[in-house]
Amino acid sequence: MDTYRAEAVLLTGVYGSGKSSVATEIAYLLEQRGEPYALLDLDYLSWAGNGTDDRAAEFGLMLQNLAAVAANYRRAGIRLFVLAYFVRDLAEVRRIQEALELPLRVVRLVVQLPDIERRLASDVTSGRRDDLLEAASSIAAAEGTGVEDAAIGNDRPIGVVARDVMTFLGWLWAAGGGACFHAFCPGVSGRSTSNSLPSGSAMTTQLSSPWPTLTRRAPSASSRATSAA
Questions:
Q1: Which among 84, 108, 160, 181 is least buried, having the fewest CB atoms inside 10 angstroms?
Q2: The model's pTM
Q3: What is the pLDDT of residue 3?
Q4: Buried b vs exposed e over 99-135: b needs ≥16 C-beta within 10 Å?
């Protein structure tokens, strides 16, 4: 694994898709490997009440807090950032990357609504009931799709899913650089992203998930920063 470049992953998906749980497991695995990492559940960076229901203002507050927190972590030598947040569109992805000032890849966790209902059934708070209604609405409207570099099914043990995500990112490699991946899911049209890959390298990896087939290919001439502009 690259030993000097900082980078980030954003786990996205509708409410109840398991973003926070998978992010926590990834953080645990990174800690066991002695990697300098930070775990940020971005909802907590805008969890405040001012008497309004303005998502744009809430998102803006989160970005301001993220920029400050990420800068502090970078100064402390943190190299791998694990973020959890439901992004609606590519514009939100770009703004998060700008706040981070780091290369960012997006993994969308895919879960069917009946599975989400079962997960949230044990949490009977009013907030969770609202989350379930919002998840159903987001799934019906295909909200938050097409923003990802990979879509991975999260209907299996958390440890398996976390390792699938880390395999996609190249974070389980003992040595070597980044990679260029493109992921395909049934009915999913995602983005492609590229980092450095040794010239002539190519690999296709079928993960244990039934969802993605991940293809590493020679990188394009443009960088993520250019493609996001």
A1: 160
A2: 0.70
A3: 41
A4: bbebbbbbbbbbbeeebbeebbeeeeeeebeebbeeb
